[in-house]
Amino acid sequence: MAKKTRRKKSAKGRIRRGEQVTPKRLMELSFAYAPPLIISAAVSNRVFDSLEAGAKTAEQVAEKTGASSRGLRILMNALIGLGLLKKDRQGKYSLTSESTAFLLSKNPGTYAGFFGTIAPNIISRWLQLSDIVREGRPTVAVNQETEGTEFFSQLVENIIPLSYPPAQKLADHLKLEKAKNEIRALDIGAGSGIWGIALTQKSPRVRVTAVDWAGMIPTTKRITQKFGVGARFNYIEGDMLEANFGTGYDIAILGHILHSEGEDRSRQLLKKIFRALRSALRSGGTIAIAEWLVNDDRTKPLPSLLFAVQMLVNTEKGDTFSFNEIKNWLEEAGFKKVRKLDAPGPSPLILATKS
C-alpha cells in the first residue's frame, strides 16, 4: 500500500488547534535577498573559477584572486551552507557538481554572467518596490526601447541557459530533422536568437527571421554568428507591433515575450502572428510560446508569482498569465489546437496551430 503523504499544516490551522506559531519562517525570509548576492560576490571575485583546478584554502584563493582572506572565508562558508561549495578536514574548499556545471565562467551553459552582473542590477530595482506599488508603475520601464535596449543587451546572452533546453525540446517536437522543404521560422523579440538557433541546429532547411529593436539586432547577429548559424538568419528592426515581417511562416516563436508586453499588446501581437503564419488544409503554421505560467486563481506556483512582481518593477503593463488566459487569446486570434508541451524551464511551452 502506498504511503500517504501528510499534509503540511498552515499557520492559520495551527493557531486554531492552539499550536505555537513561531517567527522562524519569517526570519528565514528576512535573509532571502542574501543567496543571489553571495553568489554574485563569489562570481565577481572569481571564487568558483579559482577552485576549478582543485581544492584550496581561503588564503590560497585570496592569493589567486586578490580578495581578502577574511572576506573569502566568510563568503565561502556561506556557499557551503547554500550547497555550492564543500570543505574538507584540512580547511580546503572545493566545487560541487552543481557549481562545476553552472558557475564556472568558461562553461557554455554557465549562469555566472547572470549572477555576476545581472542579478545585482535586478535586485537594485526591487529596492524601489514600495514606491512602485504605491504608484503602480516602474521607475524605469525596460519594455520601452530607449531604456530597455541597454538592459536587454546585457541580459539576453546571460539567460541563454534558461531558453536553450526548451528551444531544443521544441525543435525535437517539431521533427525538423525530417523536413524535406524549407522551414521558415519567425522569432519575435529574438534577443539572443537562441530559440531560432536551436531550430537551425536541428535542420539545415530552417531559415529564421529575427525581429527586435534596432539596438538589439547587433547583439542577435553577434550571438547567431557565434553559434555558426548567422548566415541562415534574416533580421528585421523595429517594434514588434509595427515592424513588417511579412507572411508565409511555418513557425512563430514568442520566447518569454508576453509577460513584458501586457494583455492588450499581447492580444494584438497574437493576431498579427496569426496573419503571418501560413495556412494549409492539413497542417498550418505553429506558434510556440514560452512563459512563466500561473494557475487560474493566481495563487501558485511561487516562482511565477514572484516573476509577476518582477514585471511590476520593470514594465508598465507586464504580468504573468495563466494557460487559460493565453489559450483564450490564441483562440480569439483564430488559432486551434491550443496545448501544452512539457519542456525544461519554469513552465510548459504553449503550442497552437493555424488551420
Descriptive key words:
single chain, 355 residues, 47% helix, two-stranded antiparallel sheet, 7-stranded mixed β-sheet, alpha/beta, 16 helices
Q: Profile the largest sheet.
A: 7 strands, mixed
Form type: globular
Adjacency order of strands in the biggest sheet: 5-4-3-6-7-9-8
Assembly state here?
single chain
| E-strand count | 9
Structural class: alpha/beta
What is the number of helical segments per DSSP (H or I, 4+ residues)? Answer: 16
H-E string: HHHHHHEEHHHHHEHEHEEHEHHEE
Query: What integer value in Å does the Rg equal?
Result: 23 Å
Question: Considering DSSP H and I runs of 4 or more, what fraction of the residues is helical?
Answer: 40-55%
User: Ends: how far apart?
Assistant: 47 Å
| % residues in beta strands | 5-15%
Low-confidence stretches: none
Residue-averaged pLDDT = 92
Question: Helices and strands in order, then pairings?
Answer:
Layout: H1 11-16, H2 24-29, H3 34-44, H4 47-50, H5 58-65, H6 69-81, E1 85-87, E2 93-95, H7 97-102, H8 112-126, H9 129-135, H10 145-158, H11 160-173, E3 183-188, H12 194-202, E4 206-212, H13 217-226, E5 233-237, E6 251-255, H14 258-276, E7 286-290, H15 302-314, H16 323-333, E8 336-341, E9 349-353
Helix pairs in contact: 3-6, 3-8, 5-6, 11-12, 14-16
